[in-house]
Structures are given as structure tokens and as C-alpha cells.
Amino acid sequence: RHQGEGRRGQGRLSDLRLFWALKDHYDLIFSSRLERSDSPRRKASSGLWYLFLRFLFAYQIPEFSALFLFRRDRMPSVPIVVRDDGLNFLPVLYMAAMKQGMRVGVLGILEQPRRGGQAKGFDIPLIARTIAEDFKIWWRVRIRPPR
């Protein structure tokens, strides 16, 4: 399972060529949204979410999109267990890679309207669980880092 599972059809197949062209320059390539076709409510909630993450972790975390390319042999070790079905999987992976000095690229893409899957942005139990997990991650990464 991967983070983009709920975002079916939002990346363009032609964007994969851009990722592939950069594969020798980066260990992990994330995508970020250049433009969004979302509702104002969705844009606001996402903007607030990333503002919260940037404040909490003191990293300039990009607003991730649905495409990414990672070198399997260069995946960073993550200092805490993160649920792969949570909303914080990619931000934590991004921060771990940056902190470990990996070559991290962020490629801006135009995100297409969703063609399938379910948006998780307004799932209240998921949001509550993810915020609680983010505070645990914050504690583990910023307050009591592993020795």
C-alpha cells in the first residue's frame, strides 16, 4: 500500500517521464502541487494542515501530491513507527530523508481532479488519530530523539 492509493487519477502519466529523467540525481523524489482544482474548503484545510506540520517539525514540508519515485536501496530509516495509512507518512519520510542527508527532490506537478478513491481529508477519526500521532512523532524527533 502507498500513500497515493486514495488519489486515483490525479497524476498525469506524462509526469512520470519527468520523475524518471531525475532518477539519477535524487534518492527520493516527491511531488508537490503547483495548482489545485479542489474546493476552497479542501484548499484551506490542506493549507492549515501543512502550516501545522511546518510549525510542529520546523521543516519546510511541501504540500505533497500523488506521485513519487523512491530508490528502494536508499530509503531512510524512520525514527518512529508511522502508520502507512495515516496522513503523516510522506511528511515523516521526507523529514527523515532530509535529516539523513539523502538527495531529496521535489517536483512540482499540476494535480488533476480525482477520478476515483475516497478523499480522507475530512475523516474526523483519521484526522484526530493523525494529530495525536504527529505529537508523538514531534516528541520522539524534536524533544527526545533516539540516541
The total strand number stands at 3
Identify the overall geometry: globular
- Sketch the topology as an H/E string, one letter per element: HEHEHEH
Strand order of the largest sheet: 2-1-3
Strand content: 5-15%
The major sheet is characterized as:
3 strands, mixed
Structural class: alpha+beta
From the N-terminal CA to the C-terminal CA, the straight-line distance is 30 Å
**Poorly predicted ranges (pLDDT <50, ≥5 residues)?**
1-7
Q: Give the helix tally.
A: 4
Share in helix: 25-40%
Mean pLDDT: 81
Rg, Å, rounded? 15 Å
Any descriptors?
147 residues; three-stranded mixed beta sheet; 39% helix; globular
Please provide a written account of the structure:
The chain is an alpha+beta fold and 147 residues long. Helix content is 39%, strand content 15%. It has helices at residues 15-22, 40-57, 89-99, 124-143; strands at 28-35, 64-70, 104-110. A 3-stranded mixed beta sheet has the order 2-1-3. Residues 1-7 have low confidence and may be disordered.
Write the layout of secondary structure elements.
Blueprint: H1 15-22, E1 28-35, H2 40-57, E2 64-70, H3 89-99, E3 104-110, H4 124-143
Parallel strand pairs: 1-3
Antiparallel strand pairs: 1-2
Short précis:
This protein has 147 residues and is of the alpha+beta class.
